[in-house]
Please model this.
Amino acid sequence: MKIAVPTQLVPDLVEELVVDASGSYLDPSTVRWVLNEFDDYAIEQAILLKERKGGQVTVLTQGLDGADDALFAAAAKGADRLIKLNGDFETGVKIHALARQYLPVLKALAPDLILTGVQTHLNLDGTLGPILAESLGMPYVGYVSGVTLGDGKVTVIKEYPGGLRAEMEVSLPAVLGIQSSDTPPRYVPISKIRQVMKTSKVDEEDCGDMDESGSVLVDNLLVPESSEKAEMIEGDVDAVAARLVEILKEQGVL
Amino acid sequence: MVEMVALNATDRIQDDLLLRSCIQCGDCSGVCPLGYLMDFPPSKIIADIRSETYARVTKGDSVWMCIACSACTTVCPMQIPVTLNVMSRTKEELVLAGNVPPELQAALENSQRYGNPEGESPRKRADWIKGITPAIPVFGREKRSADILWFVGDYASFHPRVQQVTRAFARLLQLLKVDFAILGVDEVSDGDSQRLAGERGLFEYLAEKNSRSFGKYSFNKIITTDPHAFNGMKTEYPKLGYSYPVQHYTEFLVEHLDQLKPMLCKEVKAKVTYHDPCYLGRVNKIYDAPRTLLAAIPGLTMVEMPHTRQNSLCCGGGGGGMWLDGFQWNKGHARVSEWRVGEAARTGASLLVVACPYETPRFEDAVKTTGRVEQLAVKDIIELLVDAI
Amino acid sequence: MNQDIYVLVEQFKGKVTDMAFMALAQAKELAAASGGKVVGVLLGHNVAGLAKDLAAGKVLVYDDPALADFTWDAYLKVLAGLIQAEMPRLVLLGETTIGADTASGLSARLGLPQVGSCTRIEAAGGAFNYTSQVCGGKLLAQGVLPDGSVLVTLVPGAFKPEQGKSAIPAQVVAMVTPALEGLRVKLSHYIEPEGGDVDICKENVLVSVGRGVQNQDNLEMAQELADALGAVVSGSRPVTDQGWLATSRLVGKSGKSVHPKVYLALGISGAPEHTEAITGSEMIIAVNTDPVAPIFNLAKYGAVVDMLDLLPVLTDQVRQAKGG
Model:
């Protein structure tokens, strides 16, 4: 069973988001690139499947700062092959361009199953999973929170609002958009990562010219300045609590 | 001390000759504040190692009740370093197996990625200096040397309550005209608590980073307000080849007492009790310096708690405890910090005085959860000194 | 290419979703400017009756047993065929567990651009300006929709479902569904959520906790406040993911949408996946240590204090107010 996990590095929201001079994208010199949270779940799910039924797991990501950290951590968890795409991914939201870069690499890998995070916080021009699925002629199910391998198919749990879920059967090969893994992503001690850095290597694929058609043009990236910003209650917790009690009384709930 | 051969962790722990000298007296398990909540308290772990049934210990998770307070190590008649060789080693096994409670996992991952367990942006590590005049000197391209390198620490840098202590200490240093500087954003977690929580690799990574920063500048000694950082840099960093003279602020200020004492002219009328931090007191045997400082403050009356000096009762923050509150509460509905503030209140003191950045927030929380907000306040010695100026 | 605004009228288990009505409301506004019609597209089995209160000029109904539930191959085949034939100016879908999957698939299959996480589209001088939420709600992206046929996935916020309803029934067109065979995705069955717990949708006051609660330990404080207020504790995804609260208490995109009189958001930053489920609240009060947390843009009242410090004090004062 060959599983591929194409991932995305995204700007870390722990750091302040600084818009560049043009006002239309993030200043790349201020961005800390981290693995998309849902891709972390996708990697974990892939490793769990490998632990259950054997197989090979390949993890791929863009060649940005932080790629090696993410890839070696995946290797320390059990990923077999690590691939980094070298290209210009620092600016602009271009999921279609990224998908096009992943396409030939994924075709060459010929995986039975592709897992990818169901979304990122930068889905301005779409989500990766469905685009890859269509381009590879595979079916797609998103918002998956459970995966069980079968014969030539997978059984997945798709999440719906309100805590409702659906069990679905998907024939392989397929692409799944992972919302959460069966168990939370495991911890990898640094000693393991360091060990793996000595024994694993990251394969690099050079992107040629990026075909950015389908990208969305952003004129303005800005911090929301809501005219209806909350009325802020000043003071220490005692003052805040007192005012809240008043407000709750006014609302008729106290 | 027996040389640890580089076998795999389980072989290593079973090969530990020191463990073989254990007489199974049970003192360690008895003195352990949370031993009664462990499926395998310290002496039982040793018994399991020796009877080769250690595997069942590493499959459980009760070792995460251990807060590395070192009470066990202190009372062992055979002088076995129980905290390190038994508890932390077992935590190492669990970390390797991925058996880590989620809160602790987050703290360790944050330490890896951001250089602090809180998950704060490292670029903001020195934001606490904003607005302080005169400006706090920061080592950098323009400042390559100072007499003292002040290692600030994680909670002292980011936690709003502890930042108050940090700013007070900055004030003291300036009043004493100390030639000091901080590393600023180049500082990362000392890593000592992460080491005791079973992530030795992470500790080494953090120590490496810090010592690379240290190496860029010239200074005569490191001082810190954090007993954990003090312990790490004094005892563990040298084992990695990074050796620097380091002092906890209490020792440092006692050295400057002649200069400091005349400044303490305002009366601080209060009955106080002093809590010996585990990593200052029990582990590093510094009991008198803090008391000397308190004695220098006019108007203060000091009472000792029943558990004092080397018998001090931990605040619960060490060995990963800072990041295991949820887990520990679920296991036993007991908080050692609540026991300690109870003890403090019973002395009749109105102020519980501490000397560690874990303690101010932990004891203040415990004061709130035990409904003693009117009775007892918590302050660091530094804050009292500044109050007296 | 026509100037019509197509809307995927998402139906789920026999009901048109609120998000679909909101999308219709958005379409209505745009069609007025573009001179086109709002065309609803309804896929399902025995669903023609659902068309009755949709605010659309026309509703195209594809009725087929294979469309009863959303599955990839079936929906894509039907919609791709339709869009390719008609090339409407815009196709609006909700960014939901159905719409998000579908939109990007259509974008790739048809080579049409897609704009995601869109809160609002406004018509201005022949062009359509979009506003989208990115980076957990911390940033807004604005631009102009490309020319030609464009897919847009919408998130709630700008319109209320009522605005997408109409008393005047739309013209219903029964469409011929293409042959749907060789479907690679099948729905086996639905799994209902664990019952036996409170229904947070029925509560007047919700004490909702987010990451700021820090550990399971502290939830007891939230429970105490809820008890004092006669309210119920709910939470955002980080809290239920950890198992600190049952999933029945989850408020958010993959949880429940709530409309209490008072929604107390404690230690919740206000990421879109959460806020889209609370916009129906009468009043939102937010407490967060981050002064620029996006939740403050949605709340009526806010305070920058630590929820863990506030909880015991507030509980105390509430008890006093009730007792005294």
Notes: The longest strand of chain A covers residues 140-149. Chain A has one domain: 2-206. Chain A has six helices and 13 strands.
